[in-house]
Amino acid sequence: QVQLVESGGALVQAGGSLRLSCTASGRLDNLNRMGWYRQAPGKQREFVAMITPRGNTNYADNMEGRFTIARDNAKNTVYLQMYSLAPEDTAVYYCYADERPYYGVDYWGKGTLVTVSS
């Protein structure tokens, strides 16, 4: 089992920046991809960004350039640096992780709330 704990969510003004963190604990021998999803009020959860242990990244089309994902393997921590935040970025941001080999098990954090005021 892998446990994920997010931090860094806050209330920020439009145009501001914020950095989220997520640290994994538990059984980490096979920890593979880590990433972020978000869920805005009344909407489905959507993909934000993902990073492999080697640092290969993947972003949602409309977020690359404003969001940067990074990872510290020594700390088992993934970060999401967000710039030029807009009210539509308001959401609960969830940390994600999986293992290699992948047996269909996805791990999720409990989420951290980001609120962007106009």
Structure description:
The protein has no helices and eleven strands. The model has no long low-confidence stretch (mean pLDDT about 95). It is mainly β and about 120 residues long. About 0% of the residues lie in helices and about 55% in strands. The strands form two sheets. Strands 2, 4, 5, 6, 9, 10 and 11 form a seven-stranded mixed sheet that branches. It has a four-stranded antiparallel sheet with strand order 1-3-8-7, with no helix packed on it. The protein has strands spanning about 1-5, 10-15, 20-25, 30-40, 45-50, 55-60, 65-70, 75-80, 90-100, 105-110, 110-115.
Tally the helices: 0
Helix and strand content put the structural class at mainly beta
What is the rounded distance between the termini?
Answer: 40 Å
Shape: globular
Q: Low-confidence parts, pLDDT < 50 over ≥5 residues?
A: none
Sheet of most strands: 7 strands, mixed
H/E series, N to C? EEEEEEEEEEE
- How much helicity do the residues have? under 10%
Q: Radius of gyration in whole Å, from Cα?
A: 14 Å
Strand content: over 45%
Q: Report the average pLDDT across residues.
A: 96
